[in-house]
Write a structure and sequence with these properties.
Radius of gyration: 45 Å
Strand order of the largest sheet: 23-24-22-21-26-29-30
Helix content: 40-55%
Largest sheet: 7 strands, mixed
Distance between the termini: 60 Å
Strand content: 15-25%
CATH architecture of the largest domain: 2-Layer Sandwich
Oligomer: single chain
CATH topology of the largest domain: Ribosomal Protein S5, domain 2
Structural class: alpha/beta
Shape: elongated
Number of domains: 3
Number of strands: 30
């Protein structure tokens, strides 16, 4: 049975605002509008929240998705940020006194990267200069002189002791147990056995002499130890002098360059002091570096062990290439991403770290500017919300791990010096989260005192139409513009509904409406009209379009000269006109696109070329995959569906997104399978589900007008038109020239609810209803599709059997 699809009448295509409903002759007669309609409150809130500099005036932007919260706020922020100074750079450097607490250095914007390079150069020079200084001949000579002097003085002490011993008839003997005293008789040193053979009086006398000399021997040994310590001190002093001479000019050069920054001067002095305090370690720097290079893994220098790397600079915030204040959108506001973190490296079962492993967070990068985060994202991350509030309340960013924040530290880590925080935070979320936070979180009330509430539309009624007229009158008085006649107000209201693309709604983005009022007043003046008429508003709209539609006209020219291939007459198998939306800043228009499908033997199913070439967006890919579900449910209930098909947007070189072309793709596929050609004087839009129902899409007005423009350019034949989802009828607010063409029978718009209706319109053939035997009526589209699928499946099966026979035969012959 053939399904009849009723064409829409001109009255269905645009809601008309009757000027006779207004009782005034001019908006000058109306009182000022006291209430705020729609978006004005949110815009003012955003502007206020950005401009005010008092503490606690951070912002929460609330409203349904799609209200333009992020875009609007970011636009405000970027414009504001360009006028503000670039914030300072921040570095972390080693604290040589308390190494667990690295120091934070603040430098003017652009100086941090230069300072880091200068310190890196200093470190590389130290690695060369210090070891070379200890390898010089002068150093070796002075070291040898000190050692020789010590040996000489030591020898003098022992010579005096030995002389005293001889005077007492004793000798000094060096043994493994130390220095011993032995008696001498007749110039011979007595052994212990000979000593025991002496008479008792002689032994007693010798023992007394030994006791007397032992005290002098202890005093001599003490003086030798002091002499040895003095020698070591002299050697250390020499080493310090050598290091001092090697690094003095290097450090003084940097101190002269950064003399105006006291913190940098103190850091350089600390480097010098640490070098002098750890001379012994740096004497063997080359050997240590060679040992490190032989290890198969990088080594983190343990705390307390001197190393040249400890003198480097960790540049946390680098604004060398930043212009104005930063505007940061944090898409993953975890605690560590916001606050920063201290990383660790495992070595031999231990976790080691140092100041160079401190990583900055988003708060550091946005410091001095603006930070935007999604409420749901930050609230779903452990401790992220608490960390943000603590930083805002304290006015500083203190880097600590989650374990520290929870009071459950298991690994020793660093405690970097906090960095002062000067930032404006904008949280974006839905109203429910705002009210939950406001009622349950006392800190939220104190920190986020600015609420920007967004909406995109309001109901079109007599009351809102009257409010619009008062709003227009108020703007005209405030800006000394020409007032509007009822016909002018009616056209503004119609344009408002057109902006929101809904016959029963009016847009609440009043910035665009105010611009329209101003421009209409301008053209009324050009037309010598005392009051703005409907024709002036229409002209303002047309002129605004003309100023912005250069690209659209260029595309139409490319279609006209067949650079872009779009047919508006004739019939083609497997080819259909789809319509895409192309937004260009303040202007959006519909761009027809050719969609083609080819079917052939195989088992690959529907192959989306745009997806395979990574030009298809996720939603578009989903729409194409739904086609397989529809075909399977329609034609593969009693037989396998074995075929291959390719489908694509022709001459498309950018990403294809959205599912509004899925019905058009299905029509192209059905045409290719059935062999029935599709009318090229029709364009199609609408998404489809697996049951073949055609669903609403966005931008229906722009899409219809985009194809109408091409048809009008090529010449209206009276048979051209657009097929749209029936659920989009309430969204129609078409241009008046399109409505006139429909009224004159030159253009047609058909609302459909199913693929059956669409394929019937496009091919002129019945879609076909499934009969009890599982087939479709002869001559219908679905009958031809079913027959083709059976034929393709049979070819696949036969090919498989032939291949099997061929394989079996080769096996037997082998």
């Amino acid at each position: 049975m053939k399904t009849k699809v009723s064409e829409l009448s001109a009255g269905d295509l645009r809601r008309i605002c009757d000027p006779d409903q207004f009782e005034f002759k001019s908006t000058a007669e109306l009182d000022d509008l006291e209430d705020i309609i729609g978006q004005e409150r949110a815009i003012r809130a955003v502007s206020f929240g950005i401009d005010i500099e008092s503490p606690g005036y951070h912002m929460y932007a609330l409203g349904p998705a799609g209200t333009g919260k992020t875009t609007t706020i970011k636009k405000f922020l970027e414009r504001k940020a360009k006028q503000q100074p670039t914030p300072d750079d921040w570095c972390y450097v080693n604290n040589f006194e308390v190494r667990d607490k690295p120091h934070a250095l603040r430098l003017p914007a652009g100086m941090g990267c230069k300072f880091q390079v200068h310190i890196d150069n200093l470190v590389e020079e130290l690695k060369v200069e210090i070891p070379n200084a200890f390898e010089s001949e002068d150093y070796e000579k002075e070291q040898e002189q000190i050692n020789q002097l010590f040996q000489k003085r030591r020898q003098v002490f022992f010579q005096e002791l030995e002389k005293e011993a001889k005077s007492k008839g004793l000798a000094l003997l060096q043994t493994p147990r130390g220095i011993l005293l032995a008696p001498i008789i007749s110039g011979e040193v007595l052994s212990a056995e000979d000593f025991n053979k002496l008479d008792e009086s002689t032994r007693l006398e010798i023992n007394n002499r030994q006791l007397e000399l032992q005290e002098e021997m202890r005093e001599t040994l003490r003086r030798v130890q002091e002499l040895q310590q003095e020698s070591k001190d002299e050697l250390r002093k020499l080493d310090r002098q050598v290091v001092g001479y090697a690094v003095e000019h290097l450090i003084d050069r940097l101190k002269e360059k950064y003399g105006q920054f006291q913190a940098i001067v103190e850091f350089l002095d600390a480097i010098r002091a640490d070098l002098l305090d750890n001379v012994e370690a740096f004497k063997h720097a080359k050997e240590m570096e060679q040992a490190k290079q032989q290890l198969p893994f990088p080594v983190v220098q343990p705390e307390g062990r001197p190393d040249f790397e400890q003198y480097r600079v960790n540049l946390m915030v680098d604004n060398c290439d930043t212009e104005g204040a930063p505007v940061i959108v944090e898409s993953n506001p975890t605690y560590a991403n916001l606050i920063g973190r201290v990383e660790h490296q495992a070595q031999f079962g231990a976790l080691l770290t140092n100041f160079s492993m401190i990583k900055c967070g988003t708060l550091h990068r946005a410091n001095g500017g603006y930070l935007m985060v999604e409420a749901r994202d930050i609230l779903s991350k452990p401790l992220a919300w608490d960390g943000l509030k603590r930083a805002l309340k304290g006015g500083e960013v203190k880097i600590e791990s989650l374990y520290q924040a929870l009071g459950a530290i298991s690994t020793r880590t660093l405690d970097p010096e906090p960095i002062p925080l000067d930032i404006k935070v904008i949280v974006i979320g839905n109203p429910m989260l705002y009210y939950l936070l406001y009622n349950l979180d006392e800190d939220f009330r104190e920190l986020f005192k600015v609420k920007a509430d967004f909406d995109i539309q309001m109901t079109w009624s007599e009351e809102t139409a009257h409010a619009y007229s008062k709003f227009i009158g108020t703007i005209c008085r405030e800006e000394s513009l020409r007032h509007f006649k009822p016909s002018g107000v009616a056209k503004v209201i119609e344009q408002s509904a057109r902006m929101v693309a809904y016959q029963d709604k009016l847009v609440t983005t009043f910035g665009a409406i105010v611009d329209l009022i101003r421009q209409a007043s301008y053209w009324a003046g050009k037309n010598d009209h005392e009051l703005v008429q409907g024709s002036d508003v229409r002209q303002a709209i047309e002129e605004q379009v003309y100023r912005s539609n250069r690209i659209e006209e260029r595309i139409q020219e490319m279609i006209e000269d067949q650079t872009l291939l779009i047919d508006t007459d004739g019939e083609v198998v497997g080819q259909v006109n789809g319509i895409a939306i192309l937004p260009l800043g303040d202007y959006t228009f519909g761009k027809p696109s050719r969609i083609t499908a080819r079917t052939f033997v195989g088992r690959a199913g529907v192959v989306n070329i745009d997806r395979e070439t990574e030009l298809g967006g996720r939603i578009h890919n989903k729409g194409v995959m739904i086609l397989t579900g529809y075909l399977g449910g329609k034609f593969a209930l009693e037989m396998p569906m074995a075929f291959s098909a390719s489908i694509t947007f022709e001459q498309s070189y950018e990403e294809v997104e959205g599912d509004s072309a899925s019905s058009a793709e299905l029509y192209a596929l059905l045409s290719s399978l059935s062999g029935f050609p599709i009318r090229q004087d029709f364009a199609v839009t609408g998404s489809v589900n697996q049951r073949g129902q055609v669903q609403a899409i966005g931008g229906v007005n722009k899409k219809i007008e985009g194809f109408f423009n091409v048809c009008e350019q090529n010449g209206l034949t009276g048979g051209q038109g657009v097929i749209i989802p029936g659920s989009n009828v309430n969204h129609l607010m078409l241009r008046e020239d399109v409505v006139s063409a429909v009224e004159d029978g030159k253009f047609h718009i058909f609302p459909i609810s199913s693929i059956d209706q669409g394929i019937q319109l496009l091919t002129g053939k019945e879609a076909g209803e499934l009969m009890e035997d599982g087939s479709y009526p002869d001559g219908s589209v679905y009958h031809a599709v079913q027959a083709c699928l059976k034929e393709l499946a049979e070819k696949v099966r036969n090919f498989g059997e032939q291949e099997k026979v061929s394989t079996d035969g080769s096996d037997e012959s082998g």
